[in-house]
Amino acid sequence: MKVLVAVKRVVDYNVKVRPKSDGTDVDLNNVKMAINPFCEIAVEEAVRLKEKGVATEVIAVSIGPKVAQEQIRTALALGADRGILVESDAEIQPLAAAKLLKAIVDKEQPQLVILGKQAIDGDNNQTGQMLAALAGLPQGTFASEVGVEGEQVSVTREIDGGLQTVKLNLPAVVTTDLRLNEPRYASLPNIMKAKKKPLDTLTPDELGVDVAPRLKTLKVEPPAERQAGIKVADVAELVAKLKNEAKVI
Amino acid sequence: MSILVLAEHDNASIKGATLNTVAAAKAIGGDIAVLVAGEGCGAAAEAAAKIDGVSKVLVADNAAYGHQLAENVSLLIAEVGKDYGHILAPATTTGKNTLPRVAALLDVAQISEITSVESADTFQRPIYAGNVIATVQSSDAIKVITVRTTAFDAVAAEGGSAAVEAVGAAHDAGTSSWVGEELAKSDRPELTAADIVISGGRGMQNGDNFSMLYALADKLGAAVGASRAAVDAGFVPNDMQVGQTGKIVAPNLYVAVGISGAIQHLAGMKDSKVIVAINKDEDAPIFQVADYGLVADLFEAVPELDKAL
Ligand SMILES: Cc1cc2nc3c(=O)[nH]c(=O)nc-3n(C[C@H](O)[C@H](O)[C@H](O)COP(=O)(O)OP(=O)(O)OC[C@H]3O[C@@H](n4cnc5c(N)ncnc54)[C@H](O)[C@@H]3O)c2cc1C
Ligand SMILES: Cc1cc2nc3c(=O)[nH]c(=O)nc-3n(C[C@H](O)[C@H](O)[C@H](O)COP(=O)(O)OP(=O)(O)OC[C@H]3O[C@@H](n4cnc5c(N)ncnc54)[C@H](O)[C@@H]3O)c2cc1C
């Protein structure tokens, strides 16, 4: 079966992002970009399915500017077979991303689509669920375990109270949580090989999708800064402060 | 304009997160209806009718909604919700699972985890692990919103007397089924609702050492949380993770024990009223947000603290 993986180009998770001083946007000049960590986990899961003989082909899709090819190449180096870039310089919000992915799903007919549960820039946690709704597919979100069993996939989900297991008919959509797997590092030979793997480029127009944003960002600002407090000398002072000054115990 | 709030419940009772979500609905302004979708959920519906500020409770009691499967519940909400101006759910794993599906079915955007209501169409929400607060305006006819519960003070659970009505046909997409659940059982308060939270990190070294934190928590009536590193290492289960990709907490007192203070962890706790950090590394970033920092070996400090209380 074919597995489709969505990979998003985002700011590296170590970068502390700040708003521009005029509050119109975040300052992403010269910051390190990377594949969204949850998407890396999605690629790893798909590649493992291929190694187990469950998946026959892994296709990595990204939506974004031309440079998002870099993240597709990363996915190819990790073991994906081919890539599709939906090229757009516009701000793609989750509903638009889901519609573009739905158009690719219609073309490619994968049995399983794996996405990250959230992108660490927008923190929206929407795209997978929206894709599943648009394609009329079942979803296993926040997955910590995925097992394909014949025409079904069993997904263990990280929920507020603990863990939940659901069974979904294939085709299905899965979104990854942190503990699904630990992604491998791409080896140098695999990085070289990835350069030769096919990568097609499409546009939202070619896919017939209107990507006009529905939400307008009016301004961005830093959160209220927390002042560092004091260091206490010992446990006795800590307890005294909590009782008499902060009055929280 | 009226507002539809999706109740978080376990069929027998209403979860606290619903009360914070109703508070956000009140901030938007308008008639508030609460939708209780479940199986054998009459008791939860009755409880919902008592929530302060709710004018109507809609109950969809059907086997298809028993385990809140998103495939089924989203069809129901999209049907019931199309006549409302706003559809709100708490940003719990249930709300996050279901509401984007509803938004897609209605062909509208979802506004995730709002922390403030500026007007009926304009909201604030944190992005980039809470390092940036964005003010966003929606141009959609129906605003589909998840609510960060810690940002809104709960309304009273009692005092209302809303009418209860049955709604909606059964929607069973027939594509998914519930197999089972492993729920953590604990007599301690819920992490997201506790007044005091004590969290342990990689510095705890193993799961057994967390018993020190449990003992402390029981003295203080606190909940116990953890960093991702502690969860990944298998010290404690996933439902205890606090952070950007775990639970968001904002208690009166947050005690971080053996936690370095990575931005992804801070994203989940930096709105706590008072923060205490116990860490042996005086340069640990957690001290930059702590009101009271204690540079000490936790294996000495925690037992001492336990004795002092
Ligand atoms: C002020 C401001 C300005 C912004 N400007 C821009 C801009 O100019 N350009 C821009 O692109 N974004 C911009 N964004 C970010 C953009 O709004 C969000 O990234 C977008 O809404 C998508 O949300 P998400 O990635 O959090 O989705 P989520 O729903 O959290 O994503 C979940 C998963 O969906 C998949 N996915 C999502 N998007 C893609 C994608 N593009 N390609 C492949 N897979 C994907 C991935 O698997 C991902 O893990 C801006 C945000 C703000 C606040
Ligand atoms: C996409 C993504 C999402 C993430 N989401 C989250 C999230 O939701 N929540 C989260 O917490 N993290 C998250 N992380 C991980 C985060 O980046 C950090 O790795 C993690 O928070 C570190 O946990 P820690 O502080 O327990 O461990 P460490 O960083 O290893 O810190 C351990 C601390 O314990 C102290 N210590 C050790 N021994 C003792 C002792 N005997 N006495 C006192 N102090 C001691 C050390 O000085 C150190 O400061 C995420 C990361 C990524 C990439």
Automatic annotation (TrEMBL), chain A:
Co-factor requirement: AMP
Q: Which domain of life is it from?
A: Bacteria
Q: Which range is the signal sequence, renumbered to this chain? A: none
Q: Which GO terms describe its biological process?
A: carboxylic acid catabolic process
List each coiled-coil range: none
Q: Which Gene3D superfamilies match?
A: HUPs (3.40.50.620)
A GO molecular function annotation here is: electron transfer activity
Where the record annotates domain Electron transfer flavoprotein alpha/beta-subunit N-terminal, the positions are 23-211
The record ties this protein, via Pfam families, to: ETF (PF01012)
The alphabetized UniProt keywords are: Electron transport, Transport
The record's comment on protein family reads: Belongs to the ETF beta-subunit/FixA family.
Q: What's the stated role of this polypeptide?
A: The electron transfer flavoprotein serves as a specific electron acceptor for other dehydrogenases. It transfers the electrons to the main respiratory chain via ETF-ubiquinone oxidoreductase (ETF dehydrogenase).
Subunit architecture:
Heterodimer of an alpha and a beta subunit.
- Name of the featured protein: Electron transfer flavoprotein subunit beta
Species for this entry = Spongiibacter pelagi
Q: What is the lineage of its organism?
A: Bacteria, Pseudomonadati, Pseudomonadota, Gammaproteobacteria, Cellvibrionales
TrEMBL record, chain B:
What does the UniProt cofactor note say?
Answer: Binds 1 FAD per dimer.
Do the record's keywords include ATP-binding? Answer: no
Q: Which UniProt keywords apply?
A: Electron transport, FAD, Flavoprotein, Transport
User: What cofactor does this chain's UniProt record say it requires?
Assistant: FAD
What GO molecular function terms would the record report?
A: electron transfer activity; flavin adenine dinucleotide binding
According to the entry, every stretch annotated as the Electron transfer flavoprotein alpha/beta-subunit N-terminal domain falls at 3-182
Q: Which domain of life is it from?
A: Bacteria
Q: Which GO terms describe its biological process?
A: fatty acid beta-oxidation using acyl-CoA dehydrogenase
Q: Which Pfam families match?
A: ETF, ETF_alpha
Q: Keyword Coiled coil on this protein?
A: no
InterPro entries given for it? DHS-like_NAD/FAD-binding_dom (IPR029035), ETF_a/b_N (IPR014730), ETF_a/FixB (IPR001308), ETF_alpha_N (IPR033947), ETF_asu_C (IPR014731), ETF_asu_C_CS (IPR018206), Rossmann-like_a/b/a_fold (IPR014729)
Q: Which residues form a coiled coil?
A: none
Output the PANTHER family linked to this UniProt entry. Answer: ELECTRON TRANSFER FLAVOPROTEIN ALPHA (PTHR43153), ELECTRON TRANSFER FLAVOPROTEIN SUBUNIT ALPHA, MITOCHONDRIAL (PTHR43153:SF1)
Record's subunit section: Heterodimer of an alpha and a beta subunit.
Q: What protein does this entry describe?
A: Electron transfer flavoprotein subunit alpha
Q: Which organism is it from?
A: Spongiibacter pelagi
State the taxonomy lineage.
Bacteria, Pseudomonadati, Pseudomonadota, Gammaproteobacteria, Cellvibrionales
